[in-house]
């Protein structure tokens, strides 16, 4: 993240959020509205799974809540809302992030990929297929986050060994206890994606 | 040869929905015009609310209502019989029974606005100092009236005589901390009223209980309450009982005249769904020179709340498992200013941990291998009821587990096994948990004119594989292929089923599916043998078998006819609903073996290897059963090594209500786990030889880890969790 990029913390700290956001969000109307509060809305557009969604949002709305409550993409889950569980993991410009820890207004102009964007029609992504084949989930609630992390884990090249997969998949909690099957899923997907 | 539909490692039938984001959990329900509720929780643990200032919140943008005990409608308290275990409804009076009790509810048009307004509610209290430390109030222990925990004061034989006659006696005190479920999906209620009709999307392990509780709370007829739960993001007991937030959400939805969604925050879940209560356990176990047990005395004392007596950490393993003529099990409680405890995955784990750890101590006193000690005390009989288990291959589990683990290579001397950078320990214990012994469930089987079947039951799939296994059971009995059968659940409009709890789904719901499918199959057979144009015409029904979508003569399989042809000629569907029949109690068992590595400098314990061999009767699906066993083992790692909820001793507030201070295992904590099954049918099972299993595989592993830590270090850490500081203190 570059130095100009606002983080959720700086945005909240500033309070007059729009000012901070504007540096990364050229689509916002005017920096003159800098005195606006987090409760003021802005018209933004988010590109999710290749589709542009225009929304009028308060600055304080997280990417997670924008996806779930506004855009209607409920595949991404909220498990803790504070970056501890990983259920809300999505890809932004190919990089895995926790969507509860970023604001929607900070993600304009970026390519956001959610679990709904992995398959091509009826053809599952290799990671999705591998999770089914290896029973990499039980309740399925952490699964969207695990899948997005797994895609990134493979692309990052962190699948050299089972221990490496374990380490790089440890930001996504699974309470049903599927970790060995998740490791097997990522291992298999990595092989198929190479 | 007919292809069997049970036993095979069939992939989850809900797999595609779960990996594409199409599976809609309660919070994902599409409800037009939904608004958002946020709870305001008590910051004191005991006292009274003296004033609530709602002016700021009420005036905040988007707020539709701010509710306190002064303006929320009066609600009837649902009964424990419908699993509403808590004996009070919050936001109905000014009394504070524990910290984190709802005192106000804010409803607004967006989540952010509700959250902001909730911070503007000013609550004043007259606080009293709470008592929240179990060790401080052990003198207040009492034996509660018996509820669902078995006998709270159980005696068989003469324990004093048994101890006096013993060659060796192990006397121990084990303590286990407060722990929380932490299902990844926090509890959710989405309530929508249409006149007097209420529809609720609920994250619940028991839609029937939720429906009944809402009927009681609002005085509604059954047909006016519909509860939906097609997907559940884990439960582990948190969503087994019905909790106040469900009723409160429906209440505020009625008052604001809009649908309302409530999603508990992670922190709120720590005081809203119960917990595994802290225990203090004292054991005296005596044995003869040959290892046969002469006496077990087990006193477990645990925290309960001011308003409820339910224990949930009950001593079934002590009463049921081992052949021992003299047993006394006492279950007592200490009232504290904390929320009530409740079911948490495998409730018998806490007492199993103390018993199995004490047996390991006894094995050292006797100089007897811990596997051998257990084999010598094996029994085919439930020692409490005196009835034989339907089947028990526990001795085979010990044998196979020891072989797979390589137990014979173990040097029993503590501290004797090392590798380059630390100490190695090997430990084992018995896995055992009751399964079933709960109310039965109904199911409806509908066979269409196209020869396919639809099965419905008002059960839930909390991740255990209910969707998949019920479809397998139905297909097996009907003789259809899996693709010819559909199984639907999670709707209270379906025939009522028992909650997804107590390892009861297979013996309760599974049996209901088997009964309905059997009756439906018999009706199709009756059609086939009565039809003059059928190849089976005139055959006796008991000479007809089913399989691969056909009906055929058992002795002459070439004489056959398809379901589709029979049903097409019949021209209308067949529908059968089974009656609910009480589900028998099974006892699913196993042997677990663990290798740990202990870093003597950092005190870090790492589980390196695990082997589990289980007897749960016939295995309906090896893939989902293996996953349940792995899940249980991982829970055991957390239970034993990292999970404890910390409470401020002065304020009575939980200081770790999150997933950063409360440490559940992560991927890097978990090694490969070797799971296998005896897989022999239990003839007493009402579900094709299968018993319930979900809770068994967490038991045993906890003590096996602790026993391995002793084997590695020579120190017993009897106070869970076995954290690094305790290892360092012991080794220095």
TrEMBL record, chain A:
PROSITE patterns: 2FE2S_FER_1, 2FE2S_FER_2, TAT. InterPro entries: 2Fe-2S-bd, 2Fe-2S-bd_dom_sf, 2Fe-2S_ferredoxin-like_sf, 2Fe-2S_ferredoxin-type, 2Fe2S_fd_BS, Aldehyde_Oxdr_Iron-Sulfur, Beta-grasp_dom_sf, TAT_signal. Pathway: Alkaloid degradation; nicotine degradation. It comes from the Bacteria. GO terms for molecular function: 2 iron, 2 sulfur cluster binding; metal ion binding; oxidoreductase activity, acting on the aldehyde or oxo group of donors. Keywords: 2Fe-2S, Iron, Iron-sulfur, Metal-binding, Oxidoreductase. Residues 42-118 form the 2Fe-2S ferredoxin-type domain. This is (2Fe-2S)-binding protein. It comes from Nonomuraea glycinis.
TrEMBL record, chain B:
Gene3D superfamilies: Aldehyde oxidase/xanthine dehydrogenase, a/b hammerhead, Aldehyde oxidase/xanthine dehydrogenase, molybdopterin binding domain. InterPro entries: Ald_Oxase/Xan_DH_a/b (IPR000674), Ald_Oxase/Xan_DH_a/b_sf (IPR036856), Ald_Oxase/xanthine_DH-like (IPR016208), AldOxase/xan_DH_MoCoBD1 (IPR008274), AldOxase/xan_DH_MoCoBD2 (IPR046867), AldOxase/xan_DH_Mopterin-bd_sf (IPR037165). SMART domains: Ald_Xan_dh_C. Residues 20-129 form the Aldehyde oxidase/xanthine dehydrogenase a/b hammerhead domain. Keywords: Molybdenum, Oxidoreductase. GO terms for molecular function: iron ion binding; oxidoreductase activity. It comes from the Bacteria. SUPFAM superfamilies: CO dehydrogenase molybdoprotein N-domain-like, Molybdenum cofactor-binding domain. The keyword Oxidoreductase applies. Signal peptide: none annotated. PANTHER family: ALDEHYDE OXIDASE 1-RELATED, XANTHINE DEHYDROGENASE. This is Carbon-monoxide dehydrogenase large subunit. It comes from Nonomuraea glycinis. The lineage of its organism: Bacteria, Bacillati, Actinomycetota, Actinomycetes, Streptosporangiales.
């Amino acid at each position: 993240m570059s130095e100009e990029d606002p983080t959720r913390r700086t945005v909240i700290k500033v309070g007059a959020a729009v000012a901070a956001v504007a540096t990364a969000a050229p689509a916002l109307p005017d920096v003159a509205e800098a005195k606006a509060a987090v409760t003021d809305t802005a018209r933004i557009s988010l590109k999710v799974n290749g589709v542009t969604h225009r929304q009028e949002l308060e600055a304080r709305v997280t990417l997670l809540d924008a996806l779930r409550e506004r855009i209607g993409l409920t595949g991404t889950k909220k498990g803790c809302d504070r970056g501890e569980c990983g259920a809300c993991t999505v890809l932004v410009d190919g990089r895995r992030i926790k969507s509860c820890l970023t604001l929607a207004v900070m993600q304009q102009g970026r390519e956001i990929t959610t679990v709904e964007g992995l398959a091509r029609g009826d053809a599952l992504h290799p990671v999705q297929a591998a999770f089914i084949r290896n029973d990499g989930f039980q309740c399925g609630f952490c699964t969207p986050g695990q899948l997005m992390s797994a895609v990134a884990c493979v692309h990052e090249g962190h699948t050299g060994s089972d221990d490496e997969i374990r380490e790089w998949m440890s930001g996504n909690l699974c309470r049903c206890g599927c970790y060995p099957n998740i490791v097997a899923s990522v291992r298999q997907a990595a092989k198929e994606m190479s | 040869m007919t292809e069997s539909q049970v036993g095979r490692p069939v992939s989850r039938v809900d797999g595609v929905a779960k990996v594409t984001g199409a599976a809609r959990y309660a919070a994902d329900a599409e409800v037009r015009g939904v608004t958002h509720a946020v709870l305001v929780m008590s910051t004191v643990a005991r006292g009274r609310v003296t004033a609530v200032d709602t002016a700021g919140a009420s005036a905040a943008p988007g707020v539709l209502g701010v509710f306190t005990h002064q303006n929320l409608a009066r609600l009837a308290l649902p009964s424990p019989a419908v699993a509403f275990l808590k004996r009070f409804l919050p936001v109905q009076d000014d009394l504070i029974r524990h910290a984190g009790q709802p005192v106000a509810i804010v409803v607004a048009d967006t989540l952010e606005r509700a959250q902001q307004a909730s911070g503007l509610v000013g609550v004043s209290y007259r606080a009293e100092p709470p008592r929240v430390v179990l060790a401080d109030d052990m003198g207040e222990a009492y034996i509660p009236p018996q509820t669902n925990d078995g006998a709270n004061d159980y005696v068989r034989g003469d324990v004093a005589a048994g101890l006096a006659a013993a060659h060796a006696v192990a006397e121990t005190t084990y303590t286990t901390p407060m722990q929380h479920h932490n299902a990844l999906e926090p509890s959710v209620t989405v309530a929508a009223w249409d006149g007097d009709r209420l529809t609720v999307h609920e994250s619940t392990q028991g839609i029937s209980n939720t429906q009944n509780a809402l009927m009681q709370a609002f005085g509604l007829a059954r047909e006016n309450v519909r509860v939906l739960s097609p997907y559940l993001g884990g439960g582990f007991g948190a969503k087994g009982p019905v909790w106040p937030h469900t009723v409160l959400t429906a209440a505020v939805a009625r008052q604001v005249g809009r649908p309302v969604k409530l999603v508990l925050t992670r922190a709120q879940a720590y005081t809203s769904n119960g917990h595994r209560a802290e225990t203090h356990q004292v054991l005296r176990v005596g044995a003869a020179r040959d290892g046969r047990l002469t006496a077990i005395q087990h006193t477990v004392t645990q925290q309960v709340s001011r308003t409820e007596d339910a224990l949930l950490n009950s001593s079934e393993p002590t009463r049921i498992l081992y052949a021992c003529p003299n047993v006394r099990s006492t279950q007592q409680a200490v009232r504290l200013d904390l929320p009530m405890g409740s079911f948490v995955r495998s409730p018998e784990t806490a007492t199993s941990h103390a018993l199995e750890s004490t047996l390991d101590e006894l094995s050292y006193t006797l100089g007897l291998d811990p596997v051998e000690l257990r084999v010598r005390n094996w029994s085919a009989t439930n020692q409490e009821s005196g009835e034989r288990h339907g089947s028990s291959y526990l001795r085979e589990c010990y044998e196979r587990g020891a072989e797979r683990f390589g137990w014979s290579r173990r040097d029993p001397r503590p501290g004797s096994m090392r590798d380059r950078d630390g100490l190695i320990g090997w430990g084992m214990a018995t896995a055992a948990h009751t399964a079933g012994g709960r109310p039965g469930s109904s199911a409806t089987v509908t066979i269409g004119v196209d020869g396919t079947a639809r099965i419905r039951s008002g059960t839930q799939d909390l991740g255990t594989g209910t969707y998949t296994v019920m479809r397998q059971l139905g297909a097996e009995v009907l003789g259809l292929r899996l693709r010819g059968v559909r199984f639907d659940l999670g709707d209270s409009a379906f025939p009522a089923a028992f909650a997804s709890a107590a390892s009861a789904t297979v013996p309760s719901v599974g049996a209901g599916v088997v009964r309905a499918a059997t009756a439906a199959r018999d009706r199709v057979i009756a059609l086939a043998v009565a039809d003059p144009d059928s190849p089976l015409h005139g055959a006796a029904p008991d000479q007809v078998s089913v399989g691969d979508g056909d009906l055929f003569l058992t002795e002459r399989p070439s004489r056959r006819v398809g379901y589709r042809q029979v049903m097409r000629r019949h021209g209308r569907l067949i529908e059968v609903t089974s009656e609910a029949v009480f589900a028998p109690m099974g006892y699913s068992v196993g042997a677990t073996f663990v290798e740990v590595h202990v870093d003597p400098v950092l005190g870090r314990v790492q589980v390196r290897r695990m082997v589990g061999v289980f007897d749960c009767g016939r295995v309906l699906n090896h893939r989902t059963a293996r996953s349940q066993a792995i899940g249980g083992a991982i829970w055991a790692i957390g239970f034993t090594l990292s999970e404890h909820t910390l409470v401020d001793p002065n304020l009575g507030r939980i200081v770790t209500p999150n997933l950063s201070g409360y440490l559940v295992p992560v991927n890097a904590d978990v090694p490969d786990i070797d799971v296998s099954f005896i897989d022999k049918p239990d003839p007493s099972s009402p579900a094709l030889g299968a018993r319930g299993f979900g809770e068994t595989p967490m038991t045993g592993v906890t003590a096996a880890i602790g026993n391995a830590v002793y084997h590695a270090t020579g120190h017993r850490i009897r106070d869970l969790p076995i954290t690094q500081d305790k290892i360092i203190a012991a080794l220095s």
